[in-house]
Amino acid sequence: MESYIIKRCSLGHIQEYGEIYAKAFSGEPWNDCWKIEDAILHVSEILESKQSYGLECLSDGRVVGFILGSTMLFHYGRVFEINDLAVLPDYQRKGIATKLLERCLAEMEERGIKSVNLITANEGMLPGFYGKHGFEREDGVILMGREIE
Question: Is 147 contained in some domain?
């Protein structure tokens, strides 16, 4: 069984995070066509934010997955929003996402964060994955969007 090391994200690994993001989100359930340079910019913008937080997973010294998000203060306390949880396709279904998520949740609890939120696909395996970790669909809120062309 492989051993994995979970540690804080590093600005020095932005290239790797971008590559992982582009590869992970090109597959099911997303099937998004990310250019690696755009994915690098995406993760850079989050990681360089003052309130960002992230963890990476290493296998034999290679980054194979990461979780990334940021905190925001509301009237009832600080919340954490998970922006990205991505694992290289060859390393998926090996417990890496679970390890990253569980460590993130434990650290948020230690920091006194009031809640952790995320947006994910409405169908497929992801609602069940997050449900196993205590996430629930929220009543009283909806995600709204507007295209700007």
Answer: no
> Looking at the 3D structure of the chain, how many domains does it have?
1
To which residue do tokens 């090391």 refer? 5
**One-letter identity of residue 117:** N
Q: Which residues span the domain enclosing 107?
A: 4-132
142 CB-near residues (< 8 Å, 6+ apart): none
CATH number at 86 reads 3.40.630.30
Beta sheet of 5-8, edge-to-edge order: 5-8, 52-59, 62-74, 77-87, 115-118
Q: What is the pTM of this model?
A: 0.90
User: Burial level of 112, CB count in 10 A (0-12/13-18/19+)?
Assistant: exposed
Distance, C-alpha 34 to centroid of its chain: 16
What pLDDT band is residue 29 in, cutting at 50, 70 and 90? Answer: low
pLDDT in tens, 80-138: 999 999 999 999 999 999 999 999 999 999 999 999 999 887 777 888 889 999 999 88
User: What is the C-alpha to C-alpha distance for residues 84 and 120, in angstroms, rounded to an integer?
Assistant: 10
- Residue 144 domain flag: no
